Amino acid sequence: MDVFSDSYNLDVYVTGFLWILKLTAAGTVGALVIGTLLAAMRVSPVPVLRGFGTAWVNIFRNTPLTLIIFFCYFGLYSTLGVTLSDNLELNNYWLGVVGLSVYTAAFVCEAIRSGINTVPAGQAEAARAIGMTFRQTLTLIVLPQAGRAVVAPLGSILIALCKNATIVGTIGLMESSNAMKDLINSNGDKVFTIFFIFAGTFAIVLIPTGYGFGWLANRLAVKR
Amino acid sequence: MSTDAVLYDHPGPRARARNRILTVVFGVVLAGLLYWIYHRFDEKGQWAGSLWKPFTQSSTWTDYILPGLQGTLQAAAIAMVLSLAFGILFAVGRLSDHWWVRIPSGVVVEFFRAVPLLLMMFFIFFGIPFVTEKPMSPLWAVVIALTLYNGSVLAEAFRAGVRSVPSGQSEAAYAIGMRKGQVMGQILIPQAARAMLPVIVSQLVVLVKDTALGYIISYSELLQLGVNNVAANFGNVIQAAMVAAVIYIAVNSTLTAVAGWLSRRTRRSGKAPRAPRPAGALVGTAEP
């Protein structure tokens, strides 16, 4: 434990997890917004929108996140000159958020779409029978019920997002995995302590979160 | 509920007109976006032939991309076999009647599922050599980390699968005098594997993608050789990343197509138990 009594080392640890927290927060918002829009596109009556949604999902779901983050930095920023902030560190952070959102949105879209499939057809038919439009059917009838069915898969997607946030370390952000690498390299005699503190932090936060989502999913599930 | 044409009425004249307008508006926005990308590329000279030409030369493929793809597939193949074994072992462990097997298996599975893969890889690659005083090969760092993570996810999938097998199956097996090991190995696991096949294959897609993390610890896989090294030689990051992405998408789409085919096949035969589905919730999705 004495590795972390050193104030510099403690600072590295805390900063690392703060970055993970910030990446997760912004990534969650981005992924949920884009993912829901994509899901709406994929079930809409307009073929171009459906095609766009399908293409997005197939491209980003099958590409490694490492490659996407790599592309955000070396492609978008270095080559094409897309800058999201004047501060170099914040710029890396926002590039990471873009990569994470774009990637995770594909999974969110698929989760919501399979949630829509759990809503019995009678619900949408009844909505149409009383004259609701596509938008009303979707937002008032189908999505609220689908949302309750997708709590569990969305939970595991968001937990995965939190773990995937470490990959933003590829483009030089000092998040937790880079922080651990640095601490290991400067304290070679306490490798296990350092690993168990870092891994343990993730485990202590994410395992109860997982069970929490499971409990919530059960509670919210539409009993049919 | 099948999504096509249940959410909306068959379009009449007004709906068709509205859909056409939406198509045009979205098409224009999309075209504008594509043009902006095209323009941006043009501004930075990214359409220059010299940047794309390397991909028409066979030496680029034989020196970088194909060896990289081989590295990716090699790590993925070893990790697939090991994580399937790890998954079955720990699923059985978690279902054991003995608490001293069940609890440690549960702890291992929950722990490795919660730890980010990259953290695990860094620990194995940079940390373990301090203990063993021998350098760790990047291939094994990638394979071990992938096995621990994906094996744990698969263990949960198998466990859910075993629990979805109707209890009559194991009762019948016990009734004809089978022992615990035989019931598990000959009755429950084969049926669970069929029920969870789509989930297992989509987890394998995740595994293939995660080999790309090997790039960070300098394992010679597709991202390292096909993007990083190609770009270092020809200065064409964007082009190299696009080619690599197409290869990844091709490999993973093939795996996904196999998963879909398998899932249709098991459904048609009607023999496999359905994947468990507690009231209104979806379970058994792969973890990205």
Helix-strand layout with pairing:
The complex is a heterodimer of chains A (224) and B (288).
Chain A: H1 7-42, H2 47-61, H3 65-79, H4 88-118, H5 121-129, H6 134-149, H7 151-164, H8 176-186, H9 191-220
Chain B: H1 13-43, H2 49-52, H3 58-94, H4 99-114, H5 117-132, H6 138-164, H7 167-175, H8 180-195, H9 197-210, H10 222-234, H11 237-269
Domain ABC transmembrane type-1 (chain B): 69-255
Transmembrane segments (chain B): 21-38, 73-93, 114-132, 138-158, 195-217, 237-262
Pfam families (chain B): BPD_transp_1 (PF00528)
Short description:
Chain A has 224 residues and is mostly helical.
Major pleated sheet of chain A:
none
H/E topology pattern of chain A: HHHHHHHHH
Number of strands of chain B: 0
Number of strands of chain A: 0
**SS-based class of chain A:** mainly alpha
CATH topology of chain A: MetI-like fold
Number of helices of chain A: 9
Q: Roughly what fraction of the amino acids of chain B lie in strands?
A: under 5%
Distance between the termini of chain A: 51 Å
Poorly predicted runs of chain B: 276-284
Extract low-pLDDT stretches of chain A: none
**Helix count, DSSP H or I runs of 4 or more residues of chain B:** 11
CATH topology description of the largest domain in chain B: MetI-like fold
Q: What's the domain count of chain A?
A: 1
Order of helices and strands of chain B: HHHHHHHHHHH
Oligomer: heterodimer
Task: Specify the overall morphology of chain A.
Answer: flat
How far is the first residue's CA from the last residue's CA of chain B? Answer: 25 Å
- Rough shape of chain B? flat
Structural class of chain B: mainly alpha
> How many independent structural domains of chain B?
2
